[in-house]
Amino acid sequence: MAKRILDCFASDFAAFTKKDLLESIQKSEGRVLACETIGYIQPMLGNVTNAEFAASMGADLLLLNMFDVKKPVIQGLPDCPPENTIQMIKKLTGRPIGINLEPVAAGKEGETDALWAMTEGRRATLENGKLACDMGVDMILLTGNPGIGVTNEAITETLQLYHDNFGDQLILAAGKMHASGILTEAAENIITKDDILAFRNAGADIILLPAPGTVPGITTEYVKELVSYAHCLGALTITAIGTSQEGADTATIKQLALMCKMTGTDMHHLGDAGYAGISLPENIMAYSIAIRGVRHTYHRMASSVNR
């Protein structure tokens, strides 16, 4: 039987199956923090990866955004064969690792700036999903970066494909933190009960929802209703701050954290845009303390990867 994440060490995570990790998240009762980082951007600490920095500030799970499975780059990582990139990050951080993949066909991308421009290894194709699985990724999140043009319909189709091919090996999460360039799926239409049902039926283990207060019209009450619905379907949920508010002041972060906690969500997400590449480090710790106090926060921060 899996421990709750609050009590886990690196050796526990290394031994977890997909089922164990999901059970561990559920047992932690809304006190699991996932932090997103971008690997190809110069790390805040120079020769220490942003993933390591986020882990040191209290992140339980690390989510790599804009990670190209065909050309993996994580600045600050010691030299290793490209196919061993995920295993090296796990070795250095002792954390479960997820990546974002984006279900948008070639030539169908929306308008976006150069920072978010799509690469072939970021598309949510069957080939890329298998590569991620083979590299040792613990979770794939099907979502969309700003302006890319990912629709909920495309997420559903890809979920079914991934579930059929390797859904028993890793966690499948799905949802959007913002409209991702699809104006008809903005505000309250970012995700609806119909979308949640479609995602769950297609194989989603975790439903991603925008955090209250991060997207126009997304209130605590609205998200709470969607979380309850996802739970009724047997899915876990993660509320996400993907609107650069992970770079707000700590007072705002604490307010967002408590609103997310009130929705009943199982996991909390902080995005990668403090400045660029990682949430403000002080906000990672502030968010962690808000949802679980200093005891569990410092336990996560202080635990050696050799345990």
In short:
The chain is an alpha/beta fold and 307 residues long. It is built from ten helices and eight strands.
Structural account:
This protein has helices at residues 10-15, 18-27, 50-56, 85-93, 126-135, 152-166, 193-201, 220-232, 250-263, 281-302; strands at 32-38, 61-65, 97-101, 139-142, 171-175, 206-210, 236-241, 267-270. The protein is globular, with a radius of gyration of 17 Å. Helix 4 links the parallel strand 2 (61-65) and strand 3 (97-101). It contains 10 helices and 8 strands. The protein has a single domain (31-302), classed as Alpha-Beta Barrel (TIM Barrel), CATH 3.20.20.70. By secondary structure, it is an alpha/beta fold. The protein has an 8-stranded parallel barrel with strand order 1-2-3-4-5-6-7-8, surrounded by 9 helices. The mean pLDDT is 94.
Helix and strand topology:
Blueprint: H1 10-15, H2 18-27, E1 32-38, H3 50-56, E2 61-65, H4 85-93, E3 97-101, H5 126-135, E4 139-142, H6 152-166, E5 171-175, H7 193-201, E6 206-210, H8 220-232, E7 236-241, H9 250-263, E8 267-270, H10 281-302
Parallel strand pairs: 1-2, 1-8, 2-3, 3-4, 4-5, 5-6, 6-7, 7-8
Helix pairs in contact: 3-10, 5-6, 6-7, 8-9, 9-10
